[in-house]
Amino acid sequence: MNIYFSGDLQGLEQGIEIICIELDIQQSKDGIPIHVEQITGPLMAGCQKDHGVIRYQEKIHFFRALGLWLQEYKESNQFEITEEPKFTANGVMVDCSRNAVMTVDGIHTLLRKMALMGLNIVMMYTEDTFTVEKYPYFGYMRGRYTEKELQACDDYAHQFGIEMVSCIQTLAHLTEALKWNYAAKIRDTPDILLADSEETYEFIEELIKAASRPFRSKRIHIGMDEAHQLGLGKYLEEYGYQKRFDIMNKHLHRVVSLAEKLALKPMIWSDMYFRLGSKSGNYYDLNANIPEDVIESMPKNVQFVYWDYYHTDEEFYRTFLRKHKEFGSEPIFAGGVWTWNGIAPNYGKTIVTTNAALEACKKEGIREVFATMWGDNGAETHPFTGLAGLQLFAEHGYASEVSQEKLAKRFNFCTGGNWDDFLTLNEFDETPGVSKDNLHESHPSKFLLWQDVLLGLYDENIRSLPLSEHYENLASRLEKAKDRNSNWAGIFTFYTQLAQVLSIKADLGVKLKGAFDQNDKQKLTHLKDELPTLRNLVDDLRKLHRSLWFSTMKSFGWEIIDIRYGGILSRLESAEYRIDQWLNGEIDRFEELEVERLNYDAPWKMPEGALGRNSYHRIVTAGTFSG
Asked: What is the spatial distance between Cα 417 and Cα 437, in angstroms, rounded to a whole number?
């Protein structure tokens, strides 16, 4: 397609050039004329046979309108689309600290998709994965960004009107940063900084300077969530017991003052105030009582971010948003695209919680929202599997009610992906035995992949479930989906292979135990003979995962996943060895298969319709994996 832009184009030129390359569009004077007007009011994309018009207020609105225009022109040369933005800021936070650090090229790819969606804020969550010159061990061997890399991302985002906001931690969630000897004097507990120490604030000041310097934005997210043991480590030894409300407030004031010295506007996660006000320590306690004097003493120039990826009831979100407003500032809402469930995204929970939360935000007049995409326990799920969730956030941002048909079409245009196929990835964890929409966050694909076939810690939980048939059917469907998602061939090739592996491995431990208990040596021999084939399939899966990882992520962190695959390959070989020993009469006891299988149990109770939890070291052994 050839097009020709005229009108209010100042500041749009480079972004237009990038998007035209992305969509294989040529700009030439003999192309379809599109007149561009910058106005105050809704965005509009229209066409009257041989000429088009785009009206926009903010730069990001132009790129969404451009996408709408091009999408609609494929079907008709006469249309007018008007959209009223519901939020002033809508975007994403990508986890770059839980093992996977997205490359600059990967971030650029994400930004192009965001531009077409109309999302205008992005945060790369960096606990210690950015460079701080005075602290060479900060982010050492963790894939930390250089200042130039972050600046390149900010420059790229700026072409589309996307604000890139630095996102760090200045209290807790700093285990990897604080594990080195340099941090001995500023460490309260293994993951929390020592409040009230001058050396701590010298350290934080360097973090804030380094994190904010690459970006145009004067906003900064300074974290401060989940500091559960605040004041109970070295702090307790040095200063004695203090009320945690007081420690938190005093620390926040100090950090905010450091940000203000650099003319920065900070935001923090809100959970610690609610936890400290709850008798049970629960963030989402509707009866939490935050004393009036504590609220009065909070810094007034801080925005509080209400994060909630869990609730399905719109009214709960509305109630909690009102509670945040009592702090005296307009809250920001952070929802979740569940890329951290295990090895595949949880779209059931993503969609139900997002619809409830964003409807509540619109009704409560919240103006800023973003989606988080975490990478807990190894970042096994590629973040781009979560793009459908970002599209859902985007469509909520430009409509009072989201049309499913428009959502699917927009997703296909903005990303080249098929909506239904991306949602099919949900079935890796919404298996037989799991409740609808997987609201209890089950992750069978993760524990079935990593668990040991001789130990089978989860085998009793899945004994009666037709999981092999489930994954065999899923593999067949994903094989066909690869052709419909050529832009995302790496993702769908990997997941097709994963389903094939699970179709064999899911209940292999159950079969081995059953054959042993029945003294069926013929069946044991047959199962043993399947192990070399399974090893080859797992190694192919490892290589596909590696290729997918290196297409978007820095190298650091892959070693963790590589070691996990190595564990499967080694243990499958050992299983073959042990079965051979038993069949050949070399051993008179097969202890691994003798042990009675119990339901997986832990200090937390798994609700009905839930299978498993998300910790690799608790999946692969009942022993001490490390430490």
From this structure: 21
Closest C-alpha to 121, from 91, 161, 94: 91
CB 98 within 8 A of CB 374: yes
What b/e string do you get for 167-195 counting C-beta neighbours within 10 Å, with b at 16 or more? bbbbbbbbebbbeeebbeebbbbebbbbb
String of DSSP letters for 132-158: -TT-TTTTTTTTPBPHHHHHHHHHHHH
Closest CA to 227 of 176, 276, 297: 276
Contact call for residues 258 and 218 (beta carbons, < 8 A) = no
β-pairing verdict for 192-193 and 187-189 = antiparallel
- Determine contact, residues 544/565, Cβ cutoff 8 Å: no
Q: DSSP class of residue 122?
A: E
What's the pLDDT at 294? 86
H/E segment holding residue 72: helix 59-73
SS3 14: helix
| pLDDT (mean) for 89-93 | 98
For the chain, the structural domain boundaries read: 2-83, 89-400, 428-619
Q: Beta strands of 469-570 (E only): which ranges? A: none
Instruction: Tell me if the pTM is above 0.70.
Output: yes
Beta carbons of 438 and 346 less than 8 angstroms apart: yes
Return d(Cα 39, Cα 262) in angstroms, integer: 33
pLDDT for residue 604 is more than 60? no
- In this structure, whether the domain defined by 2-83 belongs to CATH 3.30.160.230 is answered with yes
- CATH (residue range 89-400): 3.20.20.80
Q: How far is CA 141 from the centre of its chain?
A: 22
Whose CA is closest to 342, among 375, 383, 293, 372?
375
Closest CA to 502 of 553, 462, 455, 460: 462
Q: Which of 384, 390, 298 is nearest to 335 (CA)?
A: 390
pLDDT in tens, 41-59: 999 999 998 899 999 999 9
d(CA 498, CA 511): 20
The string of pLDDT tens digits covering residues 243-291 is 999 999 999 999 999 999 999 999 999 999 999 999 999 999 999 999 8
For 179-224, write each residue's pLDDT tens digit. Answer: 999 999 999 999 999 999 999 999 999 999 999 999 999 999 999 9
CATH class of 428-619: mainly alpha
Q: Average of pLDDT values for 475-482?
A: 97
DSSP-derived letter for residue 346 is B
What whole-number distance in Å separates Cα of residue 136 and Cα of residue 371?
32
With a CB cutoff of 8 Å and minimum separation 6, the contacts of 130 are 139, 144, 145, 150, 168, 210, 211
Q: What are the tokens at 99? A: 């093992």
